[in-house]
Inverse folding.
């Protein structure tokens, strides 16, 4: 039976996105907001809204008791977590179930398994999904030398408890390994109180390509093709994404789709999810699975003509997927540019302030998912995403030209944004050729200052 | 329920409360709510509260120091259903410094709402059984 009322546990453009999908299905919506977001569009567009806490996210958008209480007293029967915040919190998904609320996403068990990188890697390995060649935990530097010889240099020393590059070292030959092992171990001990290390083959200049999957509770799983997300900031956050991936051999593309379907089936995946891969030549390596709707989902939607959030809601309502794999085929090309309140010349540091003027683009083949308007205050508490400009067309060339025009029309004044660097990317020779690797953006010179 | 752990948390909350010079301290974590209150000081007339002391430590619900006399708003911190205390306070009710005015029922937990200084209720902004959100005004109290 279709859900009747959904609480949207998020803010910004994704809260609007879910609100629209729900209303189109005739489902009522409940917004939550922090005191800093009182004037937000997601509050205005929902049927009801509850303030759940002050500005800082720990006390508002992550305030599980107040969010669940708001769902219960408003009579909602489900919670959509959007992305970020509580979207990949298995405990939250469990708490929803404990209170009789449908969590719109996969099961808590799948969220937990895929959220733990080592578990996910082992699970994928068992399912014969290719992961980066590597070792288990190494006893000492001598074991590392032996393993590295087998893997062939360059290799990556990684801390099993690691994150954010801590306890990680690139090793290019045997002379470096002793020193790298010792320093990585010390760093891991200091940061994570766990100095256990392992080796992974370093994939040089990889492309980041991910595959969108969608499963229902009857065991049906389909893929909606791949997205190339290789244009990433030095922090590995994505800036420009496109679908399909350009300059990919037919064999590699098909292999990515097959591997993603096999992986999703291996965990009995229900809802929308994404499998991220590193691609190097024709080699494909599983990186991680995101058990949520992603920021860049619209490019798959416009290429496949499927509303992914609507499907998430239908699946959570217990309905079957309305289509099978043979009903799905990509049409044309799509690109998304993320316009963030960030300063690209300061290593993309987040910017805060009041938007003094906003003019968003439009026209044939342009979709803009955004929550901003002139006068809106951009608070330092939250994600810096201001707008997603999505262009789609029959060919990649047409789509890039359309995006360049859309970005030229766009005005977001009052804070530093990524608008200029996105404009530069649409003119960059290497991007125009297609198939750039993840070192593309870090190597791209910062654009000329505003005023040009 | 791990009582050992709960008692240890309560003991530490009490220590913190005393060390910080707070009259009342409440913490909620992992679904467990701990509230500690220090015993009242020796009785003294409420009008004789030294101004320096009352302004040095801002009260929890923002009741202003006696000089300002503007009614203070007692707000909800929890999203839930408000239940007025019985006998219910009404406009004009004079409350003691630490009277339970209502509680907000949230996920089956009663979160008490108390006055944080003696005063007179000048407005009740909610009705019994009404849903409330974070920051919603419940009572206005004019300090005595």
């Amino acid at each position: 039976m279709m859900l009747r009322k959904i609480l949207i546990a998020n803010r910004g453009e994704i809260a609007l996105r879910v609100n629209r999908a729900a209303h189109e299905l005739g489902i009522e919506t409940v917004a939550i907001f922090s005191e800093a977001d009182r004037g937000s569009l997601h509050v205005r567009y929902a049927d009801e809204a509850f303030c759940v806490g002050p500005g800082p996210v720990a006390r508002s958008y992550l305030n599980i008791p107040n969010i669940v209480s708001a769902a219960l007293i408003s009579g909602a029967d489900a919670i959509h977590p959007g992305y970020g915040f509580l979207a990949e919190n298995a405990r939250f998904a469990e708490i929803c179930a404990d209170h009789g609320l449908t969590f719109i996403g996969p099961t808590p068990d799948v969220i937990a398994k895929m959220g733990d990188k080592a578990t996910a890697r082992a699970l994928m390995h068992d399912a014969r999904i290719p992961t980066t060649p590597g070792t288990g935990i190494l006893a000492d530097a001598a074991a590392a030398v032996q393993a590295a010889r087998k893997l062939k240099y360059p290799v990556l020393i990684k801390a099993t408890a690691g994150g954010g590059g801590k306890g990680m070292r690139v090793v290019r030959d045997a002379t470096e390994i002793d020193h790298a092992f010792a320093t990585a171990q010390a760093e891991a001990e200091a940061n994570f109180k766990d100095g256990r290390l392992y080796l992974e083959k370093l994939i040089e200049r990889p492309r980041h390509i991910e595959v969108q999957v969608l499963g229902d509770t009857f065991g049906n799983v389909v893929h909606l093709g791949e997205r190339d997300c290789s244009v990433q900031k030095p922090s590995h956050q994505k800036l420009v994404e496109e679908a399909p991936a350009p300059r990919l051999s037919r064999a590699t593309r098909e292999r990515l789709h097959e591997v993603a379907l096999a992986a999703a089936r291996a965990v009995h995946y229900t809802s929308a999810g994404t499998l991220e891969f590193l691609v190097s030549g024709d080699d494909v390596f599983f990186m991680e699975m995101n058990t949520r709707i992603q920021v860049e989902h619209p490019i798959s939607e416009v290429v496949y003509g499927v509303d992914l959030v609507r499907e998430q809601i239908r699946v959570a309502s217990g309905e079957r997927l309305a289509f099978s794999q043979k009903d799905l085929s990509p049409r044309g090309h799509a690109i998304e540019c993320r316009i963030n309140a960030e300063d690209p010349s300061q290593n993309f540091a987040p910017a805060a302030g009041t938007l003094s003027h906003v003019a968003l683009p439009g026209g044939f083949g342009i979709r803009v998912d955004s929550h901003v308007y002139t006068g809106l205050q951009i608070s330092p508490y939250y994600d810096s995403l201001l707008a997603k400009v999505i262009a789609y067309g029959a060919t990649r060339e047409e789509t890039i030209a359309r995006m360049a025009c859309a970005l030229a029309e766009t005005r977001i004044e009052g804070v530093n944004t990524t608008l200029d660097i996105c404009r530069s990317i649409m003119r960059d020779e290497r991007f125009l050729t297609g198939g750039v690797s993840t070192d593309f953006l870090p190597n791209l010179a910062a654009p000329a200052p505003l005023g040009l | 329920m791990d009582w050992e752990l709960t008692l240890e948390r309560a003991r530490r909350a009490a220590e913190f409360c005393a060390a910080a010079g707070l009259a009342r301290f409440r913490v909620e974590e992992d679904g467990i709510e701990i509230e500690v209150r220090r015993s009242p000081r020796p009785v003294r007339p409420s009008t004789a509260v030294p101004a320096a002391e009352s302004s040095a430590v801002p009260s929890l619900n923002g009741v202003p120091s006696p000089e300002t006399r503007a009614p203070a708003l007692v707000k909800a911190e929890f999203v839930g259903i408000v239940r007025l205390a019985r006998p219910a306070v009404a406009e004009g009710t004079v409350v003691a410094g630490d009277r339970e005015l209502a509680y907000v029922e949230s996920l089956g937990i009663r979160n008490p709402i108390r006055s944080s200084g003696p005063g007179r209720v000048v407005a009740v902004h909610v009705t019994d059984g009404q849903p409330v959100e974070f920051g919603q005004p419940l009572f206005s109290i004019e300090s005595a």
Observations:
- The interface with chain B takes residues 35, 50-54, 60, 65-70, 72-74, 99 of chain A (CB under 8 Å).
- Residues 174-192 of chain A form the longest helix (19 residues).
